[in-house]
Amino acid sequence: MRLDKIKINNFGKFGDFFASFSDGINVIKGVNEAGKSTLVDAIVNGLFTDAKSQKKSLKERFRWGSEGAKIQLDLSSFDREYVLNKDFIDGQQRGSENNSENSWESKDAWQNFLETNLGVSDEGVFNSTACIRQDEIDSITGSSKELRDKLESIITGGHEEVVASRVIDELSKRISEIKKGGSKHPGILKQLEVEAEDLKYEIDKLSRELEVAEVRRGELTEVTSELEAVHNEFEEKKELLEKYKSSLNASKEKVELEKAYDELKKRIDELSESEKKVLEYRKVINQNPEIDQQDVSRCASLAGDVKYLETKVRDLDDDLAALQERLDGISGLGLFATLNVINFLLMAGCGIGAYLFDIRLAAGAGAFFLTQVLLQVFLWKRYSERASLKSQIRFTEIRIEEVKKKNDSYQAEIDKILKKYGYSSPTELQESNSKIEEHKKKIEKEATHYEELLDGKSKKSVQEEYDRTTRELAVVKDRLEYIGDVIISSEKLEEMEKEVSSLSEKKIQFEEKKSLLSQQLQLTEGGWEQLSAFQERLEHNQTMHKRYEDRLNVYRVTASLIEEARKDILKTTAELLERKVGEYLSTITSGRYEKIRFDRSTLDFHVFSPEKQDWLASGEVLSRGTIDQIYLCARLALVELIMGDTNPFIIMDDPFVHFDPERTQNAINLLKQLSKDYQILFFTNSDQYDQYANNLIEL
User: Fold this and answer.
1) 424 SS3 class
2) In degrees to the nearest 10, what's the CA dihedral of 245, 251, 253, 255?
3) Torsion of Cα atoms, 199 then 205 then 211 then 212, to 10°
């Protein structure tokens, strides 16, 4: 099976992500935290995770702030194309075959599709074989039981639900049901043994009682006569005592009921008053629109900003007026400019006169020159000051416009909020909100008072208690009217109670003796039939005990035979696995390691070291890189053995980080060879694999 496309929404780092894949080696490249692991998780969840899953680990992968994620996988197998959709928001999942009406949604149909087209329907098996993550490359032992079941089903041609391990588990369960001891949940044999002991005890007891039962017949007649006499005397005195006690108790009960009645009536009145207040408060709240507290805060904040900006505008207007006043104060520059021209002409005239006529005129030219310099300096300073003031005025006018624009923006937002709730000013909005909040607090206060009045009960139960107390009080009053108030001393009452108690005890003794004698006589009448029934039950019990013992032996022998057969089957599978892993390992290690064997139960490995001429376990001497290389070869071999002709795509998340350059190159060569039969999705942050990519995807 090949992965053609993936589309992801709100999963991990990806809000919306799409990628297409090709045959051969697809290199997915990105820096750390670019989303490589997220993309691997999306593929695995798109295949195996149920859309209705509530696992915390899945929800933590959803994009922050989203309700869930959606994943779509476009797959192809031979000449068929499929689309798998997982919607983790609505809990919907649907698979469909393109260009046909064939679709599926149920969990069983989904697993059947994966088993048929991918070669595996168990996520743990997939993660231990075709999904090779750099930090989990040696984690295949975590799914060793599922892997053994898959390997066994390959050899036997069976299906996952009938593999030997499940049969053995069922046999073990049945053996436990039969053999289990203990008193809390005993097994069938233990139950039969306990029942047999009880039956033997009953048979012995019944036999002894039958021997003495006949003696009791005469005693029964005598006891019956004495019981009748005691019973009549007891009833007469009991009736009189009950009358006295009933009168006294009724008087006490009346006082207590009247007190309870008053308390309950007060509580009900207070509850009704509290409900009335709450209704009034709610009416006030309902008369006003529900106000968002953020709008109230925003409106108050904006109103403060508007006041500040209005003050700012006024200050800027004052500054502008002052600048304009200073500018207006700079006048008469035209007069000084004219004087400057005249002074220049006079200076020039004196200079020419001194040159042509009289040298003494040069002193006048010097005076005019000095005046000319002073006028130039004065005019330059005044013109500069006027230019500066004009610039400040323009800047102030622009600033005023900006502040007004910002103020208008704030005012528009205030008007929008006020329009939303139908108020004309922020103050009115604030007052309305305060009024609503005040009444909400009153409701909370009344609710607290209401709950205190109920004291953990419902109003209905309080009303029922009140009604019941009312009825009981009425009954007590009627009873007092009927029996009347009887006056009797406490000494006389105590004496009567002792006499009635004595008669009661005597009556009970006679009744117990009569009952015992009657039971014994009844046992005598049907005792032999009951004894025969007990004996038949005991024989049946012994027969069932022997039958379950035989069944237990059959289950044990069957389980033993299946386990032996299973070991033989797994031995064949393990040999295939070891041979294939050896071939891959020899390629990667340039022939240094080529013999390997796996534990049949845990899939832990031992590798043969030519240097030490001995088998080494994974934790002995071997480097981390060599261990990763062995498990990488094991995973690739398991893909071929378990998934067979389905040729699934293989995910590799930077598995070569602990390889040296030579073994990395050997592994790449092996990968190129495998890519002829398998689509490879190779995730990395390195550029060195770009040259081997049939398709390069950069995250």
Assistant:
1) coil
2) -160
3) -150
Beta-strand pair 14-20/92-97: unpaired
The Cα 578–Cα 574 span in angstroms is: 6
Pick the closest to residue 544 from 187, 20, 131 (CA basis): 187
Report the C-alpha gap between 592 and 613 in whole angstroms: 12
The single-letter code of the amino acid at 516 is L
* DSSP conformation class of 63: P
Tens-digit pLDDT profile for residues 248-292: 777 777 788 888 888 888 888 888 888 888 888 788 777 777 778
**Residue 87 in contact with residue 93, Cβ under 8 Å?**
yes
**Axis crossing angle, helix 459-483 with helix 216-286, rounded to the nearest 10:** 130
Contact 295, 414 (CB under 8 A): no
**3-state class (DSSP) for residue 21:** coil
* Separation CA 45–CA 284 (nearest Å): 53
458-462 long-range contacts, Cβ below 8 Å, gap at least 24? 459/271, 462/264, 462/267, 462/268, 462/271
Amino acid identity at 195: E
Tokens of residue 561, six digits: 């035979």
* Biggest CA pair distance of the chain: 187
Query: String of b and e for 7-40 (b: at least 16 CB within 10 Å)?
Result: bbbbbbbbeebebebeebbbbbbeeeebbbbbbb
Token pair of 76 as six digits: 């192809």
Do the bridges between strand 650-653 and strand 131-133 make them parallel or antiparallel, or are there none, so unpaired? Answer: parallel
CA 45 to chain centre: 17
The pair of structure tokens assigned to 370 is: 């000095």
| Strand order, beta sheet including 680-684 | 131-133, 650-653, 680-684, 25-29, 695-698
The 3-state DSSP class for residue 102 equals coil
Is pTM beyond 0.70 here? no
CA dihedral 370, 375, 377, 383 (to 10 degrees): -170
Asked if residues 291 and 436 have their Cβ atoms less than 8 Å apart, the reply is: yes
Judge whether 597 and 615 are in contact, CB under 8 Å: yes
To the nearest whole percent, how much of the chain has pLDDT over 90? Answer: 17
Provide the 3-class DSSP secondary structure of residue 491: helix
**What does the pLDDT read at residue 648?**
93
- Which alpha helices (DSSP H) does 51-163 contain, by range? 56-59, 107-117, 123-127, 144-156
The token pair that represents 549 in the structure block = 């013992």
Residue with tokens 């109230």: 296
Q: Look at the block and give the residue holding tokens 């004698």.
A: 517
Checking 336-342 for CB contacts under 8 A at 24+ apart, the result is 336/375, 336/378, 336/379, 336/382, 337/379, 339/375, 340/372, 340/375, 340/376, 340/379
At which residue do the structure tokens 């103050």 appear?
A: 427
User: d(Cα 241, Cα 247) in Å, to the nearest integer?
Assistant: 10
CA distance 368 to 346: 7
Residue 588 CB: number of other CB atoms within 10 A? 26
pLDDT, average across residues 464-486: 77
Q: Which two tokens stand for residue 390?
A: 């004009």
The residues with which 94 forms a beta bridge, in sequence order, are 85
Q: HEC string of 157-175?
A: CCCHHHCHHHHHHHHHHHH
Chain segment 105-116, per-residue pLDDT in tens? 888 899 889 988
Exposed/middle/buried for residue 645 (C-beta within 10 Å: 0-12, 13-18, 19+): exposed
Question: What is the DSSP-derived secondary structure letter of residue 62?
Answer: B
Q: Which strand (E) or helix (H) includes residue 562?
A: helix 490-588
Q: Are 130 and 649 in contact (CB under 8 A)?
A: yes
- In whole angstroms, what is the distance from residue 382 CA to residue 370 CA? 19
Kindly state the helix (H) or strand (E) to which residue 677 belongs, with its residue range.
Answer: none
CA distance 88 to 94: 12
Q: Regarding beta strands 2-11 and 92-97, do their DSSP bridges make them parallel or antiparallel, or are they unpaired?
A: unpaired
